[in-house]
């Protein structure tokens, strides 16, 4: 169940978990075309310092990709929907087992048979993007479902114009639960911001723990990344929560 009220507690009581694409960043035609402005980097750096380090990125992207996008800023993070994570910004990421090679090769070959599709081989997961070929959505979904039938420990996760083959039980909810076991996140009220179906596990987890899971959507209090930036800035400035 979604509880779309903005939290009114002070930043110092929050464990803040932030999805990236569609939440902090506007969606781009391909993952490599997103733009991370210096103002956002500065905002996140200030949040991290003022909140004692209890700010983490939670993304379908690999942690190495997040570090590249937000350089020189490094934050606690969960990448590949929780297949890898780090508690401290300078810690080496810990990772779960990678995809079986036959399954990885099948998924990559499927994308390569359809010009215009983009494949992201993340090691722990493989994502197939259909944004440039939306007419293939149903075909790709069915083909991937057939593939994972022979690998019952893996599943297909659908998002906004993307399908990801991943290990079962690896999702953003489990990623947030993992981070909440460690300082500086432990003992704080969890707050999660996300925009996609891939964020619903985390939103449900956070709400079940009496936190605030917010879906960024036109009908919500935070409608787009610009709204998210304003709200995060308001936390730093100690102004009443809300969007312009």
Q: What does this entry look like structurally?
A:
The protein is of the alpha/beta class and 244 residues long. It has helices spanning 38-50, 63-70, 101-112, 137-148, 172-179, 200-208, 225-237, and strands at 14-18, 55-58, 77-79, 84-86, 94-95, 118-121, 126-129, 154-159, 162-167, 189-194, 212-215. It has a seven-stranded mixed sheet, with helices on both faces. Strands 6-7-9-8 form a four-stranded antiparallel sheet, covered by helices on one side. β2, α2 (63-70) and β3 form a beta-alpha-beta unit. α5 packs across α6. The longest helix is centred in the N-terminal third of the chain and has 13 residues, at 38-50. It is globular, with a radius of gyration of 18 Å.
Question: How many angstroms does the end-to-end distance come to?
Answer: 26 Å
Number of strands: 11
Number of helices: 7
SSE order in H/E notation?
Answer: EHEHEEEHEEHEEHEHEH
Q: Describe the strand arrangement of the main beta sheet, using strand numbers.
A: 5-4-3-2-1-10-11
Beta-strand content estimate: 15-25%
User: Can you give the helix content as a percent range?
Assistant: 25-40%
Backbone CA Rg: 18 Å
Q: Spans with pLDDT under 50 lasting ≥5 residues?
A: 239-244
Assembly type of the shown chains?
single chain
Shape: globular
Structural class: alpha/beta
Biggest pleated-sheet summary: 7 strands, mixed
The overall pLDDT, averaged over residues, is 89
């Amino acid at each position: 169940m979604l509880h779309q009220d903005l939290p009114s507690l002070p930043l110092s009581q929050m464990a803040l978990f932030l999805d990236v694409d569609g939440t902090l960043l506007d969606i781009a035609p391909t993952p490599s075309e997103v733009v991370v402005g210096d103002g956002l980097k500065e905002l996140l750096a200030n949040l991290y310092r003022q909140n004692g380090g209890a700010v983490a990125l939670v993304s379908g992207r690999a942690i190495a990709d997040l570090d590249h996008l937000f350089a020189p800023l490094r934050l606690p993070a969960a990448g590949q929907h929780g297949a890898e994570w780090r508690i401290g910004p300078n810690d080496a990421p810990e990772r779960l087992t990678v995809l079986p090679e036959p399954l990885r090769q099948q998924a990559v070959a499927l994308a390569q048979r359809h010009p215009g599709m983009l494949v992201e081989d993340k090691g722990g997961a493989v994502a197939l993007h259909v944004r440039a070929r939306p007419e293939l959505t149903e075909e790709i979904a069915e083909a991937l479902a057939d593939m994972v039938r022979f690998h019952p420990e893996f599943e297909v996760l659908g998002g906004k114009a993307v399908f990801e083959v991943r290990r079962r039980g690896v999702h953003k909810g489990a990623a947030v639960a993992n981070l909440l076991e460690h300082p500086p996140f432990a003992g704080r009220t969890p707050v999660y911001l996300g925009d996609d179906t891939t964020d619903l596990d985390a939103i449900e987890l956070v709400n079940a723990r009496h936190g605030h899971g917010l879906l960024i959507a036109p009908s919500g209090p935070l409608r787009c990344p610009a709204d998210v930036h304003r709200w995060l800035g308001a936390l730093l400035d100690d102004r009443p929560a809300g969007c312009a």
